[in-house]
């Protein structure tokens, strides 16, 4: 299994510096990860580092709270694409979902998807704040809005991905969208379990450790 192709190699901390972005990109090229996932301000620099490779750039939008205006998120998404991103990981307005403002939540996702065209949209539903019914509803709204992925977590909430959440999300989206597990994916066994449950992408800053775990498992070390 080419587990490296499941991995969005990620650094999203507030104080991340250019040298850390360069290191992230160099690692992504060396280990042939699917993408690097960075904050909007770092998209252009990251793109310059990986543009001559197969590594994509994913940008987070409305991160990490999701509580900014719809218009701000749309602008942020467009700007990230202009700067070289080909994937957008957006955070829904969690409060609006919990208030059952479903039309608003769906419309926000839809407008961001329309703004980025053929580029990939992943919808972070931040499962740690949601009931199971709310998780199902968030997945349904994402499908209605033509999102490409539903994603568990920002990694900045009160909890990250769980096996139960990935299983639940996959049960709702089926083959109509993909599932990304993120937040706490730190080792090979955990990564493989998420893939077994239906995740097709993993957001992690522990990609190298996961790869090395696979190499040990396969007898390369």
Mind explaining what this structure looks like?
This protein starts with 6 loop residues before the first strand and ends with a helix. Helix 6 crosses helix 7. It is globular. With 221 residues, the protein is of the alpha/beta class. It has an 8-stranded parallel β-barrel, surrounded by 6 helices. Helices cover 45% and strands 17% of the residues. The model has no long low-confidence stretch (mean pLDDT 97). The protein has a single domain (3-217), classed as TIM Barrel. Strand 2 (35-38), helix 2 (43-50) and strand 3 form a beta-alpha-beta unit.
At the fourth level of CATH, the homologous superfamily is Aldolase class I
Report the strand count.
8
Taken from the alpha-carbon principal axes, the silhouette is: globular
What is the strand arrangement across the widest sheet? 1-2-3-4-5-6-7-8
Work out the count of structural domains: 1
Number of helices: 9
> What is the architecture at the second tier of CATH?
Alpha-Beta Barrel
Under the CATH scheme, which class? Answer: Alpha Beta
**Terminal Cα separation, in Å?**
17 Å
Series of secondary-structure elements, N-terminal to C-terminal = EHEHEHEHHEHEHEHEH
The overall pLDDT, averaged over residues, is 97
| Major beta-sheet overview | 8 strands, parallel, barrel
The helical percent reads 40-55%
- Unreliable segments of 5+ consecutive residues: none
What is the fold-level CATH name, i.e. the topology?
A: TIM Barrel
Derived structural class: alpha/beta
Rg (C-alpha, Å):
16 Å
Strand content: 15-25%
């Amino acid at each position: 299994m080419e587990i490296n192709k499941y991995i969005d190699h990620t650094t999203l901390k507030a104080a991340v510096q250019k040298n850390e972005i360069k290191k992230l990109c160099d690692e992504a090229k060396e280990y042939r990860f699917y993408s690097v996932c960075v904050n909007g301000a770092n998209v252009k620099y990251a793109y310059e580092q990986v543009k001559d490779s197969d590594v994509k750039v994913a940008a987070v939008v409305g991160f990490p709270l999701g509580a900014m205006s719809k218009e701000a998120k749309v602008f942020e998404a467009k700007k990230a694409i202009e700067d070289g991103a080909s994937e957008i990981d957006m955070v829904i307005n969690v409060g609006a979902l919990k208030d059952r403002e479903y039309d608003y939540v769906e419309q926000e996702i839809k407008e961001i998807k329309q703004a980025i065209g053929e580029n990939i949209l992943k919808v972070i539903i931040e499962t740690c704040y949601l009931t199971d019914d709310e998780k199902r509803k968030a997945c349904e709204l994402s499908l209605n809005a033509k999102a490409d992925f539903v994603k568990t977590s920002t990694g900045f909430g009160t909890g990250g991905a769980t096996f139960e959440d990935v299983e639940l999300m996959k049960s709702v989206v089926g083959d109509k969208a993909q599932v990304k597990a993120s937040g706490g994916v730190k080792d090979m066994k955990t990564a493989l379990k998420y893939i077994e449950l239906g995740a097709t992408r993993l957001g992690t800053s522990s990609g190298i450790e996961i790869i090395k775990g696979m190499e040990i498992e396969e007898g390369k070390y």
